[in-house]
Design brief:
The protein is of the alpha+beta class. Helices cover about 20% and strands about 25% of the residues. Helix 3 crosses helix 4, helix 3 packs parallel to helix 7 and helix 5 crosses helix 6. The protein folds into two domains: about 160 residues, Immunoglobulin-like (Sandwich); about 190 residues, no CATH class. The strands form three sheets. It has a six-stranded mixed sheet, with no helix packed on it.
Length: about 400
């Protein structure tokens, strides 16, 4: 198709922009190593931080669109600026919402394709609240000059408020107990020291990711979480049918959660395959409730749970904050490098087997710690903490 003059060119570019705005479904072209990456940042309340969204191997990209979801309780977007890789027209919407979730919506379009990577755009965010915010891309569409979609993977990012969290925001873990996948002595497997992906950046494949946001229309009314600090995280998992309330209409957010119960939560959250006849080889498997066996077996098969060195699982024991951190990072398929330096005030009390995993989770914004900046690795996890960590993990994975 030949284009003569400025008006036809403007019409062509408008078509590309409309394609991005409407998210028209088109067949994806395979593209080796085409990747969109969101950077991470940290700062304190009141500070502005800048994050970049970049692309590698754009494979003839002419235009595209995406939603960059963030937590409005933690950060607020200030400005979006076009980068060198986004040619032609550039449109941003800082106040975009989808399924009740806040995002920065960006659309760009050019009449010609490019194979030169670089920065697509940058966004400056003001840190307005404690904790951390995942920066999650969804609804990604990249097209060439023929309006054919180019497949790409995404590496998400995060912004972490380094100031102390508010009272009650105890990141997402807890329990009493000893080392998961080790004995009570604190030896864990899968902590070989092999360097993995940058903490806080989780790579997923766009065709298999789901948009951020929860089905909130069917949420039951849980009468004891309306003013709770973890209500949004709890509602998200309840809406996804990952965790339930009680028959009396309560959730009991401060109640401890057992190892068997959390195994079910993690298996449902990740949609792990279940079997009607699960095989377990724990020394105490006769004490494992029948309802929990499929979920525990699925988590074992996925490499999330190994049990203790004495070959027991201890299904009814409360899970510790350290144990949940280990399981969450394994579920994310992140490598936990040895020699982790932790900034918690009680870092000296954190077992060596758990420290690398806690470091990864903290850097990813999944853990924020106690109000006094401690981690309390041996404390029992509450249902609220478990729900929060799981929900943040899902956001990091783009789910």
């Amino acid at each position: 198709m030949k284009i003569h003059g400025k008006r036809p060119l403007k019409i062509f570019l408008s078509c590309l922009l409309c394609l991005g705005l409407l998210l028209t479904a088109v067949p994806a072209l395979a593209a080796d190593n085409c990747r969109v990456t969101v950077s991470s940042a940290q700062g304190e309340t009141g500070e502005e931080v800048n994050i970049t969204v970049s692309i590698e191997n754009p494979s003839g990209m002419a235009g595209g669109s995406l939603n960059l979801f963030y937590d409005p309780q933690v950060v607020s977007p200030v400005q979006a600026t076009r980068g060198t890789a986004a040619k032609g027209q550039f449109v941003s919407n800082l106040g975009y919402q989808k399924a009740g979730k806040n995002a920065v919506r960006v659309v760009w379009a050019s009449s010609t394709g490019t194979s030169t990577g670089g920065e697509l755009f940058s966004v400056s965010f003001k840190i307005i609240g404690p904790g951390s915010s995942a920066l999650t891309i969804s609804d990604l569409t990249i097209t060439n000059a023929s309006l054919q979609q180019i497949a790409a993977s995404v590496t998400h990012g995060s912004i972490i408020n380094t100031a102390a969290p508010p009272p009650g925001e105890q990141d997402n873990t807890g329990s009493s107990g000893n080392s998961e996948s080790g004995s009570g002595t604190g030896n864990s497997s899968n902590s070989s020291g092999t360097a993995g992906p940058s903490a806080g950046n989780i790579t997923v494949n766009i065709p298999h990711t789901t948009a951020s946001g929860v089905m909130e229309s069917d949420l039951p009314s849980l009468k004891d979480i309306q003013a709770h600090w973890a209500s949004s995280y709890i509602n998200r998992l309840v809406g996804m049918k990952v965790i339930n309330g009680y028959a009396d209409g309560t959730f009991k957010p401060e109640k401890n959660i057992s190892r068997a119960e959390f195994a079910k939560v993690i298996a449902l959250a990740l949609s792990l395959p279940l079997t009607d006849e699960p095989e377990l080889n724990f020394a105490d498997q006769k004490e494992i409730p029948a309802w929990s066996r499929p979920y525990i077996a699925a988590a074992v098969q996925a490499g999330i749970i190994n049990g203790y060195e004495d070959k027991t699982f201890r299904a009814s024991a409360n899970i510790t904050r350290a144990e949940i951190a280990v399981m969450i990072v394994r579920a994310m398929q992140e490598q936990a490098p040895a020699g982790a330096q932790l900034n918690f005030t009680d870092a000296a009390t954190i077992p060596a087997w758990a420290a690398p995993y806690i470091k990864v989770a903290a850097d990813a914004g999944i853990i924020t710690g106690k109000p006094n900046r401690s981690f309390a690795p041996s404390e029992n996890a509450t249902r609220a903490e478990a729900a929060t960590m799981t929900a943040k993990m899902l956001s990091s994975l783009g789910i």
